[in-house]
Amino acid sequence: MTSTTQSAATDHPADALGAARSVTALIEAEAEAAELAGTMTDPVVDALHEAGLFALMVPREIGGTEADIATCLEVFEMLAWADGSTGWSHMANATAAAMAAVFTGEEAVSEIFADARAGGRMPVIAGMFGPVGSAEAVDDGYVATGRYGFASGSGHATWISAGTLVVRDGEFVAAKDGLPEMRVVFVPRDHVEFLGNWDVMGLQGTGSYDYALSNEHVDAAFTFPLVEAVAHRGGPVYGFGVLGITSAGHAGFALGVAKRALDEVVGIVAGKARLGAAPVRDQQLFQYELGYQDAALRSVRALVFESFAAVEAELGAGREPGEVARQRLRQTTTYATRIAAEVVRFAYTWAGTSALRQPSVLGRCFRDMYAATQHVFVDNNTFTDAGILRLNAAAPPS
Q1: pLDDT for position 275
Q2: How far apart are CA 333 and CA 227, in angstroms?
Q3: CB 158 within 8 A of CB 122
Q4: pLDDT category, 104, cuts 50, 70, 90?
């Protein structure tokens, strides 16, 4: 790929939607192969590079698109519509690249994004930010050790991230809030031991392999504090922070898979009849439930875009969004995931055995969506946290 092609694909956020649309047919065609391989196929990886989509959330000053949050949501939605595993892998790679590009030191950006700055390919970054490893603090950085799982998109990644708890002399180092400091480190792919272990029910094509670091020295510039991350470059969109950026990925994925499930069941019932009953498309109960689920999905989609737009507006105006507004991103993302799962369940149930036999796009939607509901990021505790904030924000009784 020439630098001209890369630039043309990534200069303007609006182009990202066209770029995503241009690769959906290939993603659909490769979806079954990705499931069988356990990871995104080479043709799709190449197409995403060529379309500039790994650059979606990278700052312009580093050669990225720096798309606004609504564009990011739509791209995540569109790719997940084409195939859940590919959409999930891409959103994991795109969000991780944003964090590496924005929150690490200049030395790290110069090395990790060297090719991209020269007009070449974007690095592809994967890994687990959860602090399940340790990072021994030394004079010039950290020595990281740990075993990790669920490194979505790692099958084609060039850099790997890992979450750690910082220790010094055998004791946890406290962050500003008094809790143990959590720090994310970034290392080249060939410094990581991949352990496989990706045999799952859903999201089979995401390459979410286990991996390990063993006494890996990481310069301080190649790290950032997970909870207290500060954007060192890029525009207001990076004020969403780690949790907000991650929320956009999960929300867009859920919307895309649910939309595809509805599209699939509408096509399936056009010619489906069950013994002794009217054709499914003519049954009043199906028509009612289709209308209901369609309204539910469109409503939660509007809520997603509204919630993210509210925070983006505050950031664009140079104001810090309030705690309630930020928590609503998590609340809305979890709610969107719950609604999407119910939409997919409806579609899968009414499709009958048409979604049971493999290969089946709708069967894949069902497996992928319900695998996604198990992610800790959309845990029910996000509702509890939102409820507590809502209670605390309420005016005291007079």
Answers
A1: 72
A2: 19
A3: no
A4: very high
Cite the DSSP H helix spans in 195-278. 241-269
List all residues 6 or more positions away from 86 whose beta carbon is below 8 Å from its beta carbon.
Answer: 27, 30, 31, 34, 40, 44, 79, 80, 205
In degrees and rounded to multiples of 5, residue 115 shows phi and psi of -65, -40
Cα–Cα dist 343/339, whole Å? 6
CA atoms of 163 and 214, how far apart (whole Å): 14
Place of tokens 């991103």: 329
**Residues near 373 by Cβ (< 8 Å), separated by ≥ 6?**
337, 338, 341
Closest CA to 72 of 16, 12, 21: 16
So what's the pLDDT on residue 396? 63
Predicted confidence at residue 11, as pLDDT, reads 46
| Residue whose C-alpha is closest to residue 128's, from 158, 99, 171, 163 | 163
What pLDDT score was predicted for residue 271? 82
Give the chain's domains with CATH numbers: 3-117 (1.10.540.10), 125-225 (2.40.110.10), 236-393 (1.20.140.10)
Give residue 26's pLDDT band: very low, low, confident or very high (50, 70, 90).
very high
Q: How many angstroms separate the Cα of 99 from the Cα of each of 55, 185, 222, 249, 271?
A: 12, 11, 11, 13, 47
> Is the Cα torsion angle 328, 334, 340, 345 positive or negative in sign?
negative
- The string of pLDDT tens digits covering residues 332-386 is 999 999 999 999 999 999 999 999 998 999 999 999 999 999 999 999 999 999 9
279 vs 17, 349, 355, 362, 391, CA distance in Å? Answer: 37, 15, 17, 19, 49
Q: Quick one: which of 92, 129, 95, 101 has its CA closest to 208?
A: 92
In Å, what is the CA distance from 245 to each residue of 12, 67, 342, 353? 19, 12, 24, 38
- Cα 338 from Cα 69, distance rounded (Å): 21
The region, left, alpha or beta by phi > 0 then psi within -120 to 50, assigned to residue 207 is left
CA distances from 326 to 67, 245, 249 (A): 19, 11, 15
Token pair of 397, please?
A: 């009784």
Q: What's the mean pLDDT when you consider all of the chain?
A: 94
DSSP 30-47: HHHHHHHHTS--HHHHHH
Q: Which residue shows structure tokens 């070449």? A: 120
Q: Which whole number is the average pLDDT over 97-111?
A: 98
